Amino acid sequence: MSEQVRVAIFGAAGRMGTQLLNEAPGFAGAAISAALVAPTSPLLGTPLGPDALTATCDLDTLSAADVVIDFSTPAACATLATECARRGLALVSGTTGLDSAQLRTLDAAAETIPLLHAANFSVGVNLLEHLLELAARGFGADADIEIFEAHHRRKVDAPSGTALLLGRAAARGRDWQLEDVATWARQGQVGPRPDDEIGFQVLRGADIVGEHTAYLCAAGERLELTHRATDRAIFARGALRAALWLASRPAGRYHMRDLLFGPH
Fold this sequence. Notes:
Belongs to the DapB family. By secondary structure, the protein is an alpha/beta fold. The chain has two domains: 5-117 and 232-261, NAD(P)-binding Rossmann-like Domain (Rossmann fold, 3-Layer(aba) Sandwich), CATH 3.40.50.720; 123-229, Dihydrodipicolinate Reductase, domain 2, CATH 3.30.360. 33% of the residues lie in helices and 27% in strands. The chain has helices spanning 15-23, 74-87, 100-109, 123-139, 161-174, 178-181, 233-246, 256-261, and strands at 5-10, 30-36, 47-48, 53-56, 67-70, 90-93, 114-117, 143-151, 182-183, 198-204, 210-218, 221-229, 252-254. The strands form two sheets. Strands 3-4-2-1-5-6-7-13 form an eight-stranded mixed sheet, with helices on both faces. The protein has a five-stranded mixed sheet with strand order 9-10-8-11-12. Helix 1 (15-23) crosses helix 7 (233-246), helix 2 (74-87) runs parallel beside helix 3 and helix 4 packs parallel to helix 5 (161-174). The two termini are 27 Å apart.
C-alpha cells in the first residue's frame, strides 16, 4: 500500500459525499482516488470537490482505491458491499436505514474484507454510546430510559440511525434486546409506562445537523446525556479517520468503538 491511503467516495454527490470531498485535501494520509455518483445523477461527468475529480458511475474506478467510503442508499450500499468483497477493498459505510437482508449482505462481505458500518462517525456520539451503556447498567431497573433525536427536515428515516445506536447501547446495559423493549411512539390512552421499555421521540425541522439526548429518569434524579452536532464536517473527519484505520485491518466486521477503544 502506498504511503497515502487511496479513498474512493461512493455517493459523492450527496451531502456527506460533498463534505468528504471538501475535507479530504486537509486530512493527512488520505488521497481521494474516485468520486462515484448514481448513474442518474445530474452531476455525472462534472468535476467535484477541490480536487475537481470527475463524477463517475463506473465501478472499475474502484480499482485505484484501497478503501471505499459509502454514504448512499440502502440498496446501493448492499450492492457496493458485494462489489468491494469481490475486489478485496475495505469498506466504510455510514448509510442508514438498511433492512435485515441488506445487513446480512454486509455481514457476508465482512467475511472476506474489513468492513466498518456506523450510524454516526462523530467521535462525541461514539463516546456517548459508551457512556450510555455504562449509565444504563449502573442505574439498572431504577431508571426509565428515553431517547430524543432531532434532525433537518430532509432526513427520510426515523428514528435516526444514531438514535437506534444509542437505544442498543442502553439495551445492552440492561441485558435487553432493543426490539423487545422499544416504544417508537405514544398516542392516546397508552397506560402507565412499563419498567422494561426504551422510548423514542423524533423532531424534524429546518437545518438541524443532529441532536441526541438520552434521559435516564430515576426517582428523585435525572441524568441527561446529550450530543449536539453543529458542523457536518465532524462526520466527514470521523469517516476519513475510520478509512485510514480500517485499510490495514484483516477481514471482519468493525465498529467505531474498535477504533476508539480497541477490539472488545
